[in-house]
Batch of 2 targets.
Target 1
Amino acid sequence: MDRLDDLTVLVEVVDCGSLSAAAERLGLSASAISRRIAQMENRLGTRLLARTTRRIALTDAGATFCLRARAILAALDEAEQSLTEMGEEPRGTLRITMPVLFGQMRVAPLLASYLRRYPGVSLEVSLNDRVQRLVEEGFDLAIRAGRLADSSLIARRLRPLRRHVVASPDYLERRGVPRSPADLARHECLTLLSGAGRTEWEFMAGDRREILRPAGSFQADSLWLLRHAAVGGLGLARLADFIVEEDIRAGRLVPVLSELEVTDEAIHVVYPATRHVSPKVRSFIEHLLAGLGRPEPADQSASSNAKVSLSSS
């Protein structure tokens, strides 16, 4: 066996917890495994394993060496896989998680064409507004809306994201149009139910970021339900552009405080960091980019279709 085989032996012994179990998995005798470990320790001039009657444990030096050994073996696997997959059609099961409404409204129309183009791929799609953990929950990639938390994931921007404060023309006619975030205290605000407390609404005034926790008599854990409530004249809602842009164009909803909207958010696709991105992941990301493009912003002039007095509240 060569030195790479030595690394494989060490990792298997650590993973199996005993020489005999590692020997069975590798198809070798326990004495051959013990001999390879001893030769490795002699070559390195240090003990890698601490043996007791009950278990085998890594020494401090062994833990450091084993960590590097795993990285080397993983890099070798990736190198071999990348050669195998060069020019290979995407295939296998692709597990994806994404926010409910973005998935229903923007991604769902793209799925049939993707599967027709890549018949070797099967899709498993989870629509969930909870931020799911990719590696721990077995997902290949995720679509995330808003600012990304610091993590080891790779992110690619799909499209910008704007959140509009909107209300129906009827509501604004009755209650007036808010001219500043402070005016929201005198309005019915339709907010998303959250385990962390009242939803925060964020505004930008120049370089100053202002965060409010608006209140109202209507809360829901569904953004689509908040959109219906706003269209029905129950109050003001702060909703993503892809949810309300058609309502704004049609005059069912009117954006307010547009000049204070936050402009540094986006929709991203994220996936675990690896040296080689699998064909199924790469092809789906490219399909998303081609299908979503850069949508036109909601037509702010559509508010002129609504018969509403722009008097202050």
Target 2
Amino acid sequence: MIVGKDIPLPWWEKYTLTIEEASLYFGIGEKTLRRFVKEHPNEEFIIYNGTKVQIKRKVFEKFIDEKVTVM
């Protein structure tokens, strides 16, 4: 067990992404993502760590595939 060290993972292997990482990964602007999170605060792909927003990558991918046509 590694204690006190962050193990860097590529974005495509992370469970959650920051808004900045999600913006790059999904090709969606940061402002658009922040607005989307604000408009859908209770969606299952959002995790709040205090005031920091995390996006569950695979859940958001599924959400986009099924429900979003244009943001």
